[in-house]
Amino acid sequence: RRKKMVERVTALMSNPEMIRNIGIVAHIDHGKTTLSDNLLAGAGMISKELAGRQLFMDSDEEEQARGITIDSANVSMVHEYNGKEYLINLIDTPGHVDFGGDVTRAMRAVDGAVVVIDAVEGTMPQTETVLRQALKEHVKPVLFINKVDRLINELQVDAQEMQIRLGKLIDHVNKLIKGMNEERYNAGWRVDAAEGTVAFGSALYNWAISVPMMQKTGVSFQQVFDYCRAEDMKSLAEKCPLHEAVNDMVIRFLPTPIVAQADRVNVIWHGDKESKIGKAMLSADATADLAFMVTDISMDPHAGEVATGRLFSGSLTRGMEVYVSGASKKNRIQQVGVFMGPERLEVENIPAGNIAAVTGLRDAIVGSTVTTLDGMEAFESITHASEPVVTVAVEAKHMKDLPKLVEVLRQVAKEDPTLKITLNEETGEHLMAGMGELHLEVIAHRIERDKGVEITTTPPLVVYRETIRGTAGPVEGKSPNRHNRFYVTVEPLEEGVRELIRNGEISMRMPEVERREKLIAAGMDKDEAKGIADIFESNIYVDVTKGIQYLNETMELVLEGFQEVMKAGPLSREPCMGVKVKLTDAKLHEDAVHRGPAQVIPASRQGIQAAMLMADDTLLEPHQKVFIQVPQDQMGGAAKEIQGRRGVIINMTSEGDMTIIESKAPVSELFGFAGDIRSATEGRAMWSTEFAGFDTLPANMTTEVVSGIRERKGLKKELPQASDYLSM
Ligand code: GDP
C-alpha cells in the first residue's frame, strides 16, 4: 500500500496543475494541529484512530510535552476532487507567538494558506500576524472557522445567531485583508462563504461544511445545526467529512504553482524578469536552470543536515553540482526527497513547483539561494516579524564539552534562523539571543536532550537597541596614520523609511531606481535617496559626496566600519536602530597601501561613534503585547500583574464569563510572568504574548541600565563621551 502511495505521489509531482503547496496558520489553540492530523487521516496517511490523539505534526517530543508546535514539518497527501487526484504539499507552521519567525519562512515555500480561526474566540493577535505574513509573501488565504460545536453546545446560540456570528467573523477577516494588502484585496483575495472560500466545522469531531459542500451533499445549514445540537457528530462526520470540505476548497481556490509563481516571483526575487532564469521561475519551468530556495534546515540523525525548500525552476536530482549563495565552492546534492508524515522518502527527481528536501548542501542556511546558474541573483531575504529581544549566556557544565558546545550552538542557529549566537570577546561567553524567555528555554532543552550537551544558562537578559534623538556633525574620523579622514553627520532615520525596512520593502539587492522611488515616497531627500551606500539592519549609510578620488574603491572598508558600529553602538554596545549616517566629505591617501583596512575601518567607525554620542544617543527597550483570558472574578488579580510591571492595559472585552485583557509591558518586566500570573489567578488565566516593538527607556532609568550593561560586558562603567572615540 505504501509503495502505491509513493508511486501516486511521484506521478503527481511532475504535473504542476495537480499540485497545491499550502500552509495552515492559526493563533495558538485554535485547532491547527487537530486539523492537520485529521486531514492526513482523511487522506489515508495515518490511521483514523490515531489522528488527533498523537499530534502527528508535532514530531518533537518537546512539542508534545508542551503542546506546542515548534519546527515546521512537512507532509504530502493525495486528494481526489471531481474524479481527479491532486497532490497537496502541506507545510506545518508553529502556532506559538514566541516562534513567529518560522511562519515567515514557511510562507516563502507555499502558495496558499488555510487560516484557522476559533469560532468562539474570533480573530486573535496571532491570527493577524500570520495573515499579514501570508499576504506579504503573496500567499492566498482561505478560511476555516473551527470549533463551531462550541458555539452551539457551550454558548447555546441558535441557528440564526450562529449565522450572524459567522458572517461577522468573515467580514472582519476581509477587513483585515483589505487593511493589510489592498492591492491583493482588489485583485479578489477575499473570503466569501457563497463563493466557497470559507468552510466551517469542527476539526475535533472531524466534520466541516461549505456552500459548495452543501450543494454536493445536500446537507443544509439547518441540518448541520440540528446534528450538532443533538450531539450527533458521528453522522455529521460521515455526511460532511472534514478533509473533503477543506481539501476541496484548497484545490478549487488556492493557486497551482504555475499560477502562483507568475505573481509571487515578482515579490520575492528582484532580478531581471526578462532573463532566462526569470522567465523560467515565472512559469515553473522544470527543464530550465535550477532555482531552489531553502526555507528550513533540520538535523537528521542518519542523513545529517536536511535542507527543505521551494523549487521555483529546474529539477533536483541526486549528484547535481550547485551554487549556494554566499559560498565559494559548489555543493553536491546527495539525496533528494519528499516528505510523507515524519518520513522523508528518497526519489530520483523533483521538478519545479514542488517542496523538496535535500541533503549535501553543506553551505546552505535558511534563506540560501541554490542554483545551477553561475551568478544568479539571489532571492530576497526572509524578513521576520519579531526580533531577538532576550538573551542568555550559555556555558558547558563540563569543561571537556566546550568544543562540542560550540558545534551544537552552530547547529541550533542553523536550524532556527531567529536565534542569534554570538561570542562575547571580552568575557569568552557564548550568548544566545531569541524572541522570548520561552523560546530560549525550548532551545536550551533541545541542546541538552537532542544534542546531549549539559549546559548552564544565566537568567534571561533584555537586548536593548541604541538610537539617536538628535542630529550631530559633521564629525571628523581620522585614521591612525592621519592620512585618511571621513566627515559624517548622523540623524534619526525618517519614520517612513524605517517602516519600509521593517516590512522588508527595500534592500540593497533591488534595482536602484525602484529603491530610490520608494525612499523618496517615504520622505527621504532626493540626493540622499540617490546616495544609499548600505542598509544594515534598520540603519542606513548615505554617501552625498561628489567626485572624491579613490572613495569608490575604499567604500567597502568604510561600510565595514559602519556595520561594526551598528552591531554594537558607542553607548552600550547594543545593536543600533533607526540611525542615518551621512558621509559629507572625505580625504584619502593617494597610495592604496596607506588606506588599508587597519586605517580606514577605525577612521570610519570613530567618526560615527563620536557623532552618535553628540546626537543624544539613548536606549530603546523592547515591549510585548500580553493577551490574558481570565474568568471575571480573577480579573483584578490579572490586571494587577500587568500594572505592577510598568504595563498598560489597552483594552478589555468580555465573552461569556471570561474577560480578555489586551495589554502591553516591557520585556524586562515580564520575566517570571508565567509563574506570577498562575498564582495570581489560581492558574485560571490563559495568556499569550506578541512582540510589540521598541520604545524609549524612561529617562530616569537610562543611566542605571546603561551602566549595568557596560559592567556586564566588561566595559568601564562610566558613560562614554564623544571625546573617548576621537583620536587626537
Ligand atoms: P493548535 O495549537 O492550533 O495546534 O491547536 P490544537 O489542534 O492543539 O487544539 C487546541 C485545543 O482545542 C485542543 O484541546 C483540541 O482538542 C481542541 N479543539 C480543536 N478543534 C476543536 C473543535 O473543533 N472543537 C472543540 N470543541 N475543540 C477543539
TrEMBL record:
InterPro entries on file: EFG_II (IPR041095), EFG_III/V (IPR035647), EFG_V-like (IPR000640), EFTu-like_2 (IPR004161), G_TR_CS (IPR031157), P-loop_NTPase (IPR027417), Ribosomal_Su5_D2-typ_SF (IPR020568), Ribsml_uS5_D2-typ_fold_subgr (IPR014721)
Modified residues (Diphthamide): 594
Cellular localisation: Cytoplasm
Domain Tr-type G: 17-258
Pfam families named in the record: EFG_C (PF00679), EFG_III (PF14492), EFG_IV (PF03764), GTP_EFTU (PF00009), GTP_EFTU_D2 (PF03144)
Positions with a binding annotation for GTP: 26-33, 92-96, 146-149
UniProtKB keywords: Cytoplasm, Elongation factor, GTP-binding, Nucleotide-binding, Protein biosynthesis
Segments passing through the bilayer: none
Listed SUPFAM superfamilies: EF-G C-terminal domain-like, P-loop containing nucleoside triphosphate hydrolases, Ribosomal protein S5 domain 2-like, Translation proteins
Gene Ontology CC annotation, any one: ribonucleoprotein complex
GO MF entries: GTP binding; GTPase activity; translation elongation factor activity
Gene3D superfamilies xrefs: 3.30.230.10, 3.30.70.240, Elongation Factor G (Translational Gtpase), domain 3, P-loop containing nucleotide triphosphate hydrolases, Translation factors
HAMAP family, alphabetized: EF_G_EF_2_A
Function: Catalyzes the GTP-dependent ribosomal translocation step during translation elongation. During this step, the ribosome changes from the pre-translocational (PRE) to the post-translocational (POST) state as the newly formed A-site-bound peptidyl-tRNA and P-site-bound deacylated tRNA move to the P and E sites, respectively. Catalyzes the coordinated movement of the two tRNA molecules, the mRNA and conformational changes in the ribosome.
Family: Belongs to the TRAFAC class translation factor GTPase superfamily. Classic translation factor GTPase family. EF-G/EF-2 subfamily.
UniProt-recorded name of the protein: Elongation factor 2
